[in-house]
């Protein structure tokens, strides 16, 4: 898989507004294989894999060998997201597909969609997808 899925084991926001208009909540990743829960983490937002469509995989590509047997459930995939503009947050995303961190931009696209973009350091390879809010 060449795309960066930015969130789950298939791959892989800071506003305090109305619940329906901010990214806090649960989101289904673009290919539908996982759900990510976005919540407040101190002064920022973070996102964790909340569920997977099938049996959860392991973090087998993690650069730290001691973490390769951990489940992707509970894995932090959106890290330290801070406001970066109107309805946009910037931070880091962890891609369990390759075990690497990417610069992340999360942009609200209405109340039910998030555009997630991840890019390698120094303008490296980028990938993006749309996540859908789970009711």
TrEMBL record:
InterPro entries: DUF2147. Keywords: Signal. The keyword Mitochondrion does not apply. The keyword Signal applies. Residues 1-21 form the signal peptide. Residues 25-133 form the DUF2147 domain. This is DUF2147 domain-containing protein. It comes from Methylocella tundrae.
């Amino acid at each position: 898989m060449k795309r960066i899925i930015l969130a789950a084991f298939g791959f892989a926001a800071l506003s305090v507004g109305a619940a329906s208009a901010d990214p806090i909540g649960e989101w289904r990743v673009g290919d539908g294989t996982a759900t990510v829960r976005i919540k407040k983490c101190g002064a920022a937002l973070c996102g964790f894999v909340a569920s997977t469509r099938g049996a959860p995989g392991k973090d087998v590509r993690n650069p730290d060998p001691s973490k390769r047997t951990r489940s992707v459930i509970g894995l932090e995939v959106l890290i330290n997201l801070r406001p970066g503009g109107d309805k946009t947050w910037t931070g880091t995303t962890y891609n369990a597909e390759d075990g690497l961190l990417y610069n992340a931009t999360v942009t609200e696209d209405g109340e039910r969609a998030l555009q997630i973009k991840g890019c390698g350091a120094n303008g490296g390879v980028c990938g993006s997808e749309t996540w859908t809010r789970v009711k």
